[in-house]
Each structure stands twice: as structure tokens, then as C-alpha cells.
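quick q for whoever's on today - can somebody do inverse folding on this one?? i tried earlier but teh output was garbage lol. C-alpha cells:
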């Protein structure tokens, strides 16, 4: 499978004029703490729905099918792409990640707020299909701190860390494309800033 995002769009586009539902895209470099922020946000605001992505990578020890990801093999993922089942998708380090579009559409149409925690390439695809989405970019305090966090979590080889850091520089350079930018230096402060974006400026 090619390492470029698909140009295939969902068979039915997401609604653009839902009266109360909304789509919130949260993006930032790997290791910046997107997952921790989203988990903390949903603990405080359980009405927020997190879209569950599909991936071809193997599950980690603490991950639960249908809760963290839907885990599929490459042939099934390719089938989903070809059938237009994904709102967005991209490939990183040999693994594919994507967002099933139908659950997102159903919740937005029902007036719910849906969070997408995705990478830059996917966020750009969503912007093309759903320009009304709120898009938030999460910054690390510094590249040195980002490297420390990547090493601390102990999930990647040296080569993988190097690739993630290089990609992070490219992602940070694109932060101005987003509606809002939040720096995750202190978790409580970053969470408060994210709440301000989602609720005070909504």
C-alpha cells in the first residue's frame, strides 16, 4: 500500500449544517500527549464522543479492541479504502490508520460532539470534506521535551524515534493551518486551554 493518503472520499459526505453537532479535530506530533489530553477531557466531559480509529498495526498490551482501535489486517484496510468507508486515512511507519466515516456522521447528525485524535495528513483530509470542523493543534513545549517523552514511553527504536522527531518538525511547521493552537507544557493548563477552545469559543 502506498504511503500517501487516499483521495477516496466517503460515499456520502458529512453534513455541513448540523444545528448542534460538531466535529473537533485534535492533532499534534507523536508523543506530544494528545491521548492523555483527550482522556482527561472526556473524564470531565463524558458527553464528548471519541471516534475510534481503525489500524493495521498490532495491538499493544494494554489496548482493547473497539475501545482504543479497531485492529484489522492490510487486505481489510485496503478494502475499506476502496469501498469509501473511511473519512480519512494515512500510513505511518508501515502501518495504516483511518477513521470510519459512518459513526462520525451519525453522531454529528444526532447533535453530538465528536473528537478525532488524528495525524496531520488525516486532519487535512477532514478539512477538505468538513471545513466547519474545529481544528486544534497540540504543541510540545520544545523538541527536547518531545524527544524525552518519546524515549520515556519506551515504545520505539532509535530509528523510529528519529523518524518521529523529523516528522514532528514538519507537523509543527503546519500548525498555523489550524484554528487553535495549545502548548502541552503543563497538563492542567493545557487541558484548561483546550476546554476554553471547545466550550467558551464554541
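ok took a stab at it. sequence:
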Amino acid at each position: 500500500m502506498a504511503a500517501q493518503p487516499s483521495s477516496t472520499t466517503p460515499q456520502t459526505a458529512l453534513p455541513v449544517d448540523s444545528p448542534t453537532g460538531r466535529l473537533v479535530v485534535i492533532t499534534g506530533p507523536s508523543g506530544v500527549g494528545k491521548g492523555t489530553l483527550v482522556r482527561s477531557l472526556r473524564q470531565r466531559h463524558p458527553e464528548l464522543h471519541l471516534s475510534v480509529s481503525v489500524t493495521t498495526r498490532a495491538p499493544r498490551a494494554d489496548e482493547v479492541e473497539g475501545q482504543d482501535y479497531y485492529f484489522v489486517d492490510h487486505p481489510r484496510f485496503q478494502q475499506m479504502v476502496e469501498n469509501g468507508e473511511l473519512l480519512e486515512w494515512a500510513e505511518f511507519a508501515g502501518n495504516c490508520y483511518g477513521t470510519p466515516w459512518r459513526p462520525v456522521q451519525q453522531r454529528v447528525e444526532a447533535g453530538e460532539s465528536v473528537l478525532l485524535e488524528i495525524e496531520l495528513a488525516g486532519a487535512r483530509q477532514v478539512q477538505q470534506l468538513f471545513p466547519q470542523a474545529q481544528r486544534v493543534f497540540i504543541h510540545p513545549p520544545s523538541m527536547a521535551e518531545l524527544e524525552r517523552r518519546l524515549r520515556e514511553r519506551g515504545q520505539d527504536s532509535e530509528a523510529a524515534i528519529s523518524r518521529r522527531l523529523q516528522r514532528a518538525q514538519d507537523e509543527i511547521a503546519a500548525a498555523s493551518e489550524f484554528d487553535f493552537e495549545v502548548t502541552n507544557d503543563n497538563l492542567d493548563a493545557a487541558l484548561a486551554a483546550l476546554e476554553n477552545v471547545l466550550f467558551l469559543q464554541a
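fwiw Strands lie at 22-27, 49-50, 53-55, 69-71, 86-92, 95-100, 113-117, 134-139, 180-183. also Residues 1-9 have pLDDT under 50 and may be disordered. so keep that in mind when u check it
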